[in-house]
């Protein structure tokens, strides 16, 4: 497809090597065949299409975000383009995959011991076990670092977890849930892998969402939930380790935002070429072309930002402010793009059969999760001024 049709005007995808192109092409074929045809139906039903898990396993991309066997980091540009491509098809599916690979697998890869990594990551990479990530609480979102109420109390070789979590993606069906809790003894935030079926663990699906309706977010309760010491992530000793996981996944959300922008631009461009008004395609009207160019400008600028972000990750110079700025900026520009696309489609923009309405709604969730624009702005503000305004 032409870069003018995909929104990749500056041909950033050409930076991928031949092997990476094959991986991306494999994912695109799967999304075209299996995801796009069912996305609106499952979005309306507010159900996750579990049959896709087998297809994701066959595409074989879940393990790419984890370190290679020789210890070197994977090619972040490829994993970024994969996240973008997923969101370009559907933001709910992209979120499911990001929770599983980035948050759950990422937590185990970053904070688990070698034995814990060997125990859980291979099965997760094969999609035989699905992961979730439980951090946000009913009364603590942006202030979770200091406001976490979920507790972990050591009892011999077991930890007893008590508390509640909210907005936990995949939690209704996940096999492994990474739960963050505050140690009652030292007050430090620590990570635990809770297996499905553990007594005292309950996940209740959140209903009536207006965004990411395919994602099965849950309210979690932990009532004297006993987890063995072997399930405590040994390298998660404070919230700083949790933040390290979020630093990496925020960059993934920025890539997702670019994918949503690309989808909105493509929908609008195709519609403009087909829709006839006043005897000719609306693509020939000046105001329509202006909207399309604004969409393309936002998409190109944000794609350039996340490509450079991937390079910083692989160079080892990646910092909190880098991912925070990308997440805040790209999701803000994304909101503009989906709004302009809906405007271009006029009344048809609110009908699901034209797809853009789903992207407009789902963009609101991407704008808020993994740190609001305001919180990410304060992370960047702290870096550039040397003064924290977070407290």
Automatic annotation (TrEMBL):
Domain Acyl-CoA oxidase/dehydrogenase middle: 132-225
Ranges of residues in domain Acyl-CoA dehydrogenase/oxidase N-terminal: 21-128
InterPro entries on file: ACX4-like, Acyl-CoA_DH_CS, Acyl-CoA_Oxase/DH_mid-dom, Acyl-CoA_Oxase/DH_mid-dom_sf, AcylCo_DH-like_C, AcylCo_DH/oxidase_C, AcylCoA_DH/ox_N, AcylCoA_DH/ox_N_sf
Domain Acyl-CoA dehydrogenase/oxidase C-terminal intervals: 244-384
Record key words, sorted: FAD, Flavoprotein, Oxidoreductase
Cofactor(s) needed for function: FAD
Protein family membership: Belongs to the acyl-CoA dehydrogenase family.
Name of this chain's protein: Acyl-CoA dehydrogenase family protein
Organism: Kineosporia corallincola
């Amino acid at each position: 497809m032409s870069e003018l049709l995909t929104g990749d005007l500056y041909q950033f995808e050409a930076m991928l090597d031949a092997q990476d192109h094959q991986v991306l092409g494999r994912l695109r074929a799967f999304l075209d065949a299996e995801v796009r045809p069912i996305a609106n139906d499952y979005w309306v039903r507010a159900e996750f299409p579990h049959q896709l898990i087998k297809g994701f396993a066959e595409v074989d991309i879940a393990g790419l975000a984890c370190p290679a066997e020789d210890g070197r980091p994977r090619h972040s540009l490829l994993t970024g383009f994969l996240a973008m491509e997923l969101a370009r098809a559907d933001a709910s599916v992209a979120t499911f995959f990001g929770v599983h690979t980035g948050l759950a697998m990422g937590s185990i890869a970053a904070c688990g011991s070698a034995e814990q990594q060997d125990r859980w990551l291979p099965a997760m990479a094969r999609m035989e076990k699905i992961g979730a990530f439980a951090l946000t609480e009913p009364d603590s979102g942006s202030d979770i670092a200091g406001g976490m109420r979920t507790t972990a109390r050591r009892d011999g070789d077991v930890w007893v977890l008590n508390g509640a979590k909210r907005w936990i993606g995949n939690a209704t069906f996940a096999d492994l849930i990474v739960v963050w809790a505050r140690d009652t003894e030292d007050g430090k935030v620590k990570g635990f892998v809770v297996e499905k079926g553990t007594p005292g663990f309950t996940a209740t699906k959140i209903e009536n969402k207006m965004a990411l309706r395919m994602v099965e977010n849950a309210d979690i309760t932990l009532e004297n939930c006993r987890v063995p010491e072997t399930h405590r992530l040994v390298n998660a000793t404070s919230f700083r380790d949790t933040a390290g996981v979020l630093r990496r996944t925020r960059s993934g959300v920025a890539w997702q935002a670019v994918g949503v922008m690309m989808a909105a631009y493509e929908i609008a461009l195709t519609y403009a070429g087909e829709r006839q008004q006043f005897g000719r395609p609306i693509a020939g009207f000046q105001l329509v072309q202006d909207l399309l160019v604004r969409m393309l400008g936002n998409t190109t600028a944000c794609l350039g930002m996340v490509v450079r972000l991937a390079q910083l990750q692989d160079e080892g110079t990646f910092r909190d402010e880098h991912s925070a700025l990308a997440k805040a900026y790209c999701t803000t520009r994304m909101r503009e793009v989906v709004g302009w696309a809906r405007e271009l489609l006029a009344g048809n923009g609110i009908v699901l059969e034209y797809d853009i309405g789903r992207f407009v709604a789902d963009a609101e969730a991407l704008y808020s999760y993994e740190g609001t624009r305001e919180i990410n702005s304060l992370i960047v503000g702290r870096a550039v001024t040397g003064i924290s305004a977070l407290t």
